[in-house]
Amino acid sequence: MLPPADAFLPELQFQTSRSSGPGGQNVNKVESRVEVRFHIGSSQLLTDEQKQTLLAKLASKLTTEGELLLTAQEDRSQLRNKEIVVQKFHELLRTALHKPKARKATKPSKGAVRKRLESKKKHGEKKAGRGKLDF
Asked: Which residue numbers delimit the Prokaryotic-type class I peptide chain release factors domain (predicted)?
């Protein structure tokens, strides 16, 4: 079970920089781009099993130090971008830690098997009837 998103806030490191997104001259003056770093190995909220799962599934998104790095620059507001990146972070953890439901193998019903065999028999008889005729 994953803790709520706001429980991770003390473990997240935020950094801001100038954005290349929308905002006109605002882009040149205000640091609205938000970057968040999360070190998976040193997290107090995750179990060892969850840490191993995240390290395996998110390997392509991790830095060489084992930090998860996410950015947001969709909005003009730094605060809104911070909310967006925290939401992205929590969604990424939730999807990576989701365990798919185990599939139970099932057998076809007797009626379905009977219907399939009857169909095959009819098809075979139809093809057998197309043979050469003897006079």
From this structure: 11-128
